[in-house]
Amino acid sequence: MASDQSREELDARARQGETVIPGGTGGKSLEAQEHLAEGRSRGGQTRREQLGTEGYQELGSKGGQARREQIGTEGYEEMGRKGGLSTTEKSGGERAQEEGIEIDESKFKTRGS
């Protein structure tokens, strides 16, 4: 578990609008982000149990196809490049920035937005 000092630092960053917990997007504090991430994880697990593994995989595949249609093949490939750079320690965006790899995030935006 994180030390009190690092939790305080994470909480301060969360209160400034930064997502500090994966899956905690939208939480206005560290605790709120932790709760959001836990709830989202449980929701996904419940849905997987309802649909079974194959149904859940099909659902994810359909979501990926829909996103590809929204942003086009070029945008989808650019998003994949960024995702491919991610590691357990760093996001794809962080690695791209550190290594000087240019990622055009405007390509990710839904066409017409």
Keywords:
113 residues; mainly alpha; 3 helices; 67% helix
How would you sum up this structure, described in words?
The protein is an all-alpha fold and 113 residues long. It is 67% helix and 0% strand. It has three helices and no strands. It has helices at residues 4-15, 30-85, 92-99. Helix 2 (30-85) crosses helix 3.
TL;DR of this structure?
The chain has 3 helices and no strands. The protein is mainly α and 113 residues long.
Task: List strands and helices in order, with pairings.
Blueprint: H1 4-15, H2 30-85, H3 92-99
Helix pairs in contact: 2-3
Count of individual beta strands = 0
Distance between the termini: 41 Å
The helix content is: 55-70%
The secondary structure category is mainly alpha
What's the gyration radius in Å?
17 Å
**Sheet having the most strands:** none
The run of helices and strands is HHH
- Report low-confidence residues grouped into runs of 5 or more: none
Which percent range describes the beta-strand content? under 5%
The number of helical elements comes to: 3
